[in-house]
Design goal:
Length: about 575
């Protein structure tokens, strides 16, 4: 025990950890259960271990722990696998509350030195962190969390060979994909209806199937469920061989039931295959509808946007149909006007600052920026003051310009507070047009700024980047204007050296570099466009600072030199 007392973790043969020195201390040779029982560390000999670094205050830990409990319970019958909880909690009450739900062992909370010592031999950069060791103390992997999430108990005994075997099987399954390989598991060959009835997966063979990933607590999912239900019902009425299988990411039975927007099918709530399929199809957004063709192969990775925008017309979701929809979209864009974008039914107005209704027809012929933003969004609140400044500068030059705020705020008070600092127009709060505009312009995140030209056609969806890079000079945001700006930028640097040395940064040469925004390390002022820059040290010199000594040396008294041009001082 002397080594443990001196905070040394022994290794055997250079790469195997000795369990005793790893887990004990000078006055402790045991671990504890949540009922207070002590278990000798020597009893772990011959077992595989999982060192689980976790904490009750950590949301990802709390979500992962039930997965680990499930795997631990499945493997407990083997008798050769144990998990050791290494708490990162800050007080014993939190430790006890969290540990009370765990069926495995733990290092006592009181032994803080032993708990902290485990950070040294393992790369614990964040939690939850699960280190898996074999019976000899050899580290099998420090990616235990990912392995448990992906493979569960099937990953046992967690050796590299076993994990590679499972990956090879996954690759084979992808190559030989069928509706059965997607939906059937070892313990289940059925899907369920909303009333819990079982439907054999074999009944889906030969059909087009939409694998619908959903979470009813997530508003975009809840809104899309209604649209998908309409499409599903119409296709069923038309006798089409189409089915939806819902993969619910909800946590409770009530939310799961709410996700049944129509009498479609689903995997059972919290089925092990739900997370597995999310990884298999590389789920990155909700809602997602993966289309599986009658042959069991993937036709489209996510048809949700097409269903939302085109409805039943998007069926049967084949590449040919998506090519056809693309042509329809092109034709729609070519015919786009401001009124086709902003007028819907009786909604033919936006709001002015005084609350008065401004007819969309009165805005025709102007350059319009559609500003998707919200008070709760920090990047939005950071960008809005810059946009206000740009707006005022452009309006001074050209009144045929306007911004329309399209809010994602969750309540009227937030909308009113945020809009009070804006000098432009807005869609009314909770306006029905907001969702259709978000779909049309494929708004995946905010802030987003869309520029529409005087004809109403879309100029660019990247107007925010242009405003941040060029300010009011970016107006009217056209390709022609961007080319002019680019030419001006290149002209600005004519005659400047490509590289130079400066006594304020003697370590490396400074290279003339395009930089969007920076702070000059000499004058401490903001700079943009051009910098004399050291990438290795992240060191910037504004051109005026980098070149001032050179220009002073070149100039005669009464003259100022800038690059290749010297002019008489004013």
């Amino acid at each position: 025990m002397a080594d443990a007392a001196n905070n040394v973790v022994e290794t055997i043969n250079g790469d195997c950890h000795d369990f005793k020195s790893l887990l004990s201390s000078s006055d402790r040779d045991f671990l504890v259960r949540n009922n207070g029982d002590q278990v000798k560390i020597d009893s772990l000999k011959g077992k595989k271990l999982g060192l689980y670094i976790s904490a009750s205050w950590c949301g990802p830990c709390r979500r992962f722990t039930p997965n680990l409990i499930e795997v631990y319970t499945e493997l407990s019958t083997k008798g050769d696998f144990e998990v050791i909880f290494v708490s990162a909690d800050e007080d014993e009450e939190s430790f006890n509350g969290y540990f009370s739900k765990m069926p495995w062992l733990a290092i006592p909370f009181s032994d803080s030195e032993a708990r902290k010592r485990l950070d040294e031999p393992f790369s614990v950069m964040g939690i939850p962190h699960l280190v898996l060791l074999d019976e000899n103390g050899k580290v099998l992997t420090e990616e235990g969390v990912e392995i448990i999430r992906e493979y569960g108990e099937e990953g046992y005994p967690f050796t590299p060979e076993k994990i590679q075997e499972l990956k090879d099987l996954e690759e084979k399954a992808k190559k030989e994909q069928s509706i059965k390989t997607i939906l059937v598991s070892r313990s289940r060959d059925f899907v369920v209806t909303s009333d819990g009835s079982k439907v054999p997966v074999s009944e889906l063979e030969g059909k087009t199937v939409g694998i619908y990933f959903s979470a009813s607590s997530f508003k975009p999912s809840a809104d899309f469920t209604q649209k998908l239900a309409e499409v599903y019902s119409k296709l069923k009425e038309n006798g089409e061989k189409f089915e939806v299988v819902m993969i619910s990411l909800d946590d409770d039975e009530e939310s799961f039931r709410q996700s049944f927007g129509a009498p479609w099918l689903a995997l059972p709530l919290k089925d092990k295959s739900c997370e597995k399929l999310a990884r298999y199809f590389e789920l990155s957004t909700l809602p997602t509808v993966v289309i599986i063709g009658p042959d069991g192969k993937t036709l489209h990775p996510n048809a949700a946007d097409a269903i939302d925008e085109h409805g039943i017309v998007a069926y049967p979701f084949t590449p040919e149909k998506f090519a056809e929809l693309k042509e329809i979209e092109k034709a729609s864009e070519a015919a786009q006007t401001l009124e086709s974008v902003l007028v819907s039914g009786g909604l033919d107005f936006v709001l002015g600052k005084d609350g008065a209704k401004v007819k969309v027809a009165d805005l025709v012929g102007k350059t319009i920026l559609l500003y998707f933003s919200a008070h709760w969004c920090p990047p939005c609140r950071a960008f809005t003051p810059s946009l206000v400044e740009v707006y005022k500068k452009i309006k001074e030059k050209d009144d045929a310009f306007e911004v329309i705020f399209i809010s994602s705020d969750r309540d009227r008070a937030s909308f009113d507070e945020y809009y009070s600092g804006m000098p432009w127009l807005a869609l009314p709060f909770n306006d029905a047009r907001k969702s259709s505009l978000s779909r049309k312009f494929k708004v995946q995140g905010i802030p987003m700024l869309i520029a529409l030209g005087p004809t109403g056609k879309t100029i660019t969806k990247e107007a925010r980047s242009l405003v941040m890079a060029h300010g009011a000079d970016a107006y009217p945001f056209t390709e022609e204007r961007l080319k002019e700006i680019e030419a001006q930028i290149e002209e600005m640097a004519k005659g400047w050296p490509e590289k130079l040395k400066d006594e304020r940064h003697e370590e490396h040469e400074l290279v003339l570099t395009r930089r969007s925004n920076y702070v000059c390390d000499a004058c401490k002022e903001n700079g943009q466009v051009w910098s004399f820059y050291c990438e290795e040290c992240d060191f910037d010199l504004h051109p005026k600072c980098a070149l001032e000594k050179e220009t002073k040396a070149d100039a005669k008294e009464g003259w100022v030199c800038d690059g290749e041009v010297c002019t008489r001082a004013s």
